[in-house]
Amino acid sequence: MATSTLLMQMQLLVSLMMVNSALSGNFYQEFDMLWGNGKANILNNGELVTLSLDKDSGSGFQSKQEYLFGKVNMQLKLVSGNSAGTVTSYYLSSKGSSWDEIDFEFLGNLSGDPYTVHTNVITQGKRDREQQFHLWFDPTVDFHTYSILWNPLAIVFLIDGTPIRQFKNLKSKGIQFPNNQPMRQYSSLWNADDWATRGGVIKTDWRYAPFTASFRNFSGQVCVWSNGVSSCNNLKSPSSRPSSYKWLKEELQPTSLQRLRWVRNNYMIYNYCTDTKRFPQGLPPECAFEI
Fold this sequence. Notes:
By secondary structure, this protein is mostly beta strands. It has a single domain, classed as Jelly Rolls (Sandwich), CATH 2.60.120.200. The chain is 12% helix and 37% strand. It is built from three helices and 16 strands. The chain has an eight-stranded antiparallel β-sheet. The longest helix is centred in the N-terminal third of the chain and has 18 residues, at 2-19. The termini are far apart. This is Xyloglucan endotransglucosylase/hydrolase. Its EC number is 2.4.1.207.
């Protein structure tokens, strides 16, 4: 009987360990430096990452684990001064030719101009869902928190807790939604002066190199994907779901929707859902359901 009880306790402990998918916040534990010839560095005992870009190379890192749904947060301090032509990215992506992706990209600027936040949702390799915003603060002076909520109901992009974009799951209406391919989290700093600043008109001025962006306080709750199984598989029943997993059913409430509209009304500078020149045969179907 004692052996049976001990076995049950061990099985329960293993189950709880699988369910506990809170991210540690330590970059040594959560990420691998991916590329950049030493330009991607983990500092302060794993609490900070700096990425650098010069004329030879940019740099980047990726999460050790794959996720199938999650709510992740990262604090970024973007390249200061004349950052025209540079792109700092923070995104989730799967692999393959029919990949899914959820993008935050921060497009550099001439000193004094506002940063542009470029967002995109790619499903099964389908792009063309860009929305762009200007920030209502200087993102180079201090760290700000950029979050991605990805659950079975929607994808939400947030800045310092303020939602700026929502992409709902409309698969019931025949619109693709990323819900079956696990993704890793990536961040990078790279040169994109063929398109990033004013459509590529303004080129990177290498006299200001090396350019540097900083990342810290990575946190969140995720469904870890391992050996074809999600750590959230045993959380499908509401009665079995810990309170820490309420994000799996999280939706924007009226107050958050009001803040989302405030951002759209005051800071949105491009929306594919209003670009009739780009889509002369008709706007993408999800645009009919946009807020």
